[in-house]
Design goal:
Number of strands: 8
CATH class of the largest domain: Alpha Beta
Strand order of the largest sheet: 1-2-3
CATH architecture of the largest domain: Alpha-Beta Complex
Distance between the termini: 30 Å
Radius of gyration: 18 Å
Oligomer: single chain
CATH topology of the largest domain: Sufe protein. Chain: A
Number of helices: 8
Helix content: 25-40%
Strand content: 15-25%
């Protein structure tokens, strides 16, 4: 069955804005998932004094949704303070496109995560605050990261679907048990890879162990 896109998705895909590279960029990131095959590279110019994103461009490798969400994300971020961008959620991109098919929601997550990754890297170089003193690797942090992992079948976060059954943390090692529904077998690898990538990106995480447990149904939060 062909995937149906909204007119806005088609418009952004066929005529994306802010495509390319910025030669004198002071912030950049490359985010992507080998599991789904989509990848985005952002380049930005962030004003060190005002912390405003003065310019931003992207390069995309992936599907129509990947290109469309990256284009919209650059337009949302340009001209905004980095704190405002760090507060964005994938919903901002999805709503700007009048919706995405459930199997493509992960593209909006990738688009927003890429923006935030570039800003975090910029902060590591330019901020006076010691990030390591503020960051705490605990269950709340793990759950927050897993809210960005989307079940391709439903387009809903694995946290909201109550798929996260157990979290254990021990000296850089994170153990997560996920409950998979009867119809999820074709998405096992995708969900596992997305979960691993989001957790491995967290400071202090050295090893991620994921156990997939088959269940019969979900209990949405």
């Amino acid at each position: 069955m062909a995937i149906k896109y909204t007119p806005k998705v088609i418009q952004e895909f066929t005529n994306p804005e802010n495509v390319g590279e910025i030669e004198n960029a002071n912030a950049s990131s490359t985010e992507g998932s080998p599991a789904c095959g989509d990848m985005i590279t952002y380049n930005m110019i962030i004003n060190p004094d005002t912390k405003i994103i003065e310019d931003i461009k992207f390069r995309s490798y992936g599907c129509a949704s990947n290109i469309a969400t990256a284009s919209v994300a650059t337009k949302i971020a340009k001209g905004k303070h980095i704190d405002e961008v760090m507060g964005l959620t994938p919903k901002a991109v999805t709503e700007s496109l009048d919706g995405l098919p459930a199997v493509k929601i992960h593209c909006s997550v990738l688009a927003i995560n890429g923006l935030k990754s570039a800003i975090r890297k910029w902060n590591e170089k330019y901020s006076d605050m010691e990030k390591s003193d503020e960051f705490k690797l605990d269950e709340e942090t793990i759950v927050r990261a897993l809210r960005n992992v989307i079940n391709p079948e439903t387009g809903v976060s694995i946290v909201k679907m109550n798929m996260v059954r157990m979290i254990e943390i021990e000296t850089g090692k994170v153990y997560v048990e996920l409950m998979m529904g009867d119809t999820d077998e074709m998405f096992f690898n995708n969900i596992e890879e997305e979960t691993r990538e989001h957790l491995e990106d967290l400071p202090g995480v050295l090893n991620v162990i994921i156990k997939l447990t088959e269940g019969k149904s979900y209990s949405f939060e």
